Amino acid sequence: MGAKIFKRIKTKKTDLIACWPGIGNIGITAVDTLRGQVQAEEFGEIEPWDFFYPQKVSIKKGFLEELKFPRSRFYFKKVGRKGLIFFIGEEQAMEGEDVYAKGKKAYEMANLVLDVAEQFGCQRVYTSGAAVAPVHHTMRPKVWAVSNKKELLDEIERYKNTILMSKIEGVDNQGSITGLNGLLLGVAKKRGLEGICLMGEIPFYLQAFPLPYPKASKSVLEVLSRILGIGLDLSQFDNYVTQVEETIEKWYRQLPSEIKDRLEELKHIRYVKPTRLEPITEMSEEDKKKLIKDIERFLQKGGE
Amino acid sequence: MTEKGMFKFSKIPKLKSPSLVVSWSKDAGKFGAKVIDFLNKKLGSEEFCQIEPTGFFSLGGVKVEDDIAQFPESKFYCCERDELVIFKSDQPRYEWYKFLNSVLDAAEYYGKIKELYTVSGTISSIAHTSPRRILAVFNQPELKKILQGYGLVDMEYEGEPALNSYLLWIAKRRNIPGVSLWAEIPFYLAAQEDPKAWRRMLEFFDRRFTLNIDLEEISEEIKKQNKKITSIRRQKPAINKYIGQLERGFMLNEKEQEKLAKEVYQFLKERS
Fold this sequence. Notes:
The complex is a heterodimer of chains A (304) and B (272).
Chain A: E1 3-5, E2 14-19, H1 26-38, E3 41-46, E4 56-60, E5 63-68, E6 72-79, E7 82-89, H2 103-119, E8 122-133, E9 143-147, H3 153-158, E10 162-164, H4 180-190, E11 194-203, H5 214-228, H6 235-253, H7 257-264, H8 285-300
Parallel strand pairs in A: 2-7, 2-8, 8-11, 9-10
Antiparallel strand pairs in A: 1-3, 3-6, 4-5, 6-7, 9-11
Helix pairs in contact in A: 1-5, 2-4
Chain B: E1 7-9, E2 19-24, H1 31-43, E3 46-51, E4 63-65, E5 68-70, E6 74-79, E7 84-89, H2 96-108, E8 116-124, E9 134-138, H3 141-146, E10 152-154, E11 157-159, H4 163-173, E12 178-186, H5 195-208, H6 216-235, H7 237-247, H8 254-270
Parallel strand pairs in B: 2-7, 2-8, 8-12, 9-10
Antiparallel strand pairs in B: 1-3, 3-6, 4-5, 6-7, 9-12
């Protein structure tokens, strides 16, 4: 079990930006887009066999040619004075039949990633994921932020369109980040490394939608690029956002009006704790669950 | 890789460089287990080691099949005379990489594995009266060359890997020459048994390792099964028509395939 480094990188100070797939692939889309924009080059990989089952075999003319596993790769790019290490895992390291990593395997994976990053002077770790929120899909997603050190909170609050998890109504200063995107933050804390997780908002009724949600990835990208001081050209990415938006809109138009009316209310619902007195309109957890059930029922009927 | 306590040895066999034959329970027509059981019986193989199930199987209770409680088994047998190690196991649920390496570790405890053979059945749209082919996947060209003349057919496949392919791949990384052997089983016998396919596979091993095993018993089984199928063909014209179509090389549609498989299964079950 281990990481394979096939290209030495020369740098003393680096930040790690790591991500695994999750709801709406929000984090991984953001991180992979950033990696592509800065043209980071692959320099290492975590050997897959202890973490994953093979996905595909190629047998040609009676020979076993290839066995394909999910990849977990490292990339590097020096941007200004800073070295950026990207880590992109195609799958969460599973224990048993869970979708999200947990337990021994996840902990081993998180440690391997940080072992490599620390070899190259890692000081700070960024991860990204999804924040399932009572928002409407036409709204600009905010980015929920969590840090592993109190000292970083002031810094986070300075970035436009971010919100600390503690400011969310009903969260009551308690929350969790599922899977490796959260666990890495904890393991980094154990090692004394700074860590920030940026989570793009996804409407709760789209969390099981069989499509990515790039609109939230864009919000994460904007925050990440600001933190790292990188200028991005997101014109192509915007086309992708528009395409997915159109698909969602098409689906939304087919919803029965009683469901749509309730979802429309989300445009006016306040879920961030108020900084001043204002009228309260909230959607309870029970209402949300009921709405999801109604949508599921509608979809089961074939959307008629 | 291998942890202490993972194996339970009951005997230390005398082997120099054995060939390893691997099969998994519950493949098509319970093929692998049948072939291995027959080989073990005829060779007088002795059990010498087990892999402990912890970490590889779900141990949250037992499965019950035909009123019998089941428990995962992973057993090694040896035939010192023929330098053979035979491994028969349920398919592990977790930690495939570790498990498959352990299989090779236990067999290599006595010296380098000479060759690895995995044995399975694969469902085919042939008629039961057709000869059974053995499809083969090699992990090294040298072994393919050695086995030319054994009538093996090159396999072509792209998709989800079977455990055998994974084992073959690990063996390749450990520089162990290996081949996965897949005997064709007519789809309408997959839920029952296909002695004709057993015989084809056993003939291969008999020749490869000069075992001189008596296959008469299996020939009798084939005759019995053929008789039963001839009987259903006589009684049910539709079944006769479907099998006739397969014999002439025509495909059946999904509905016809289902009907044929269901009726043959019922018929053979009632008469078993």
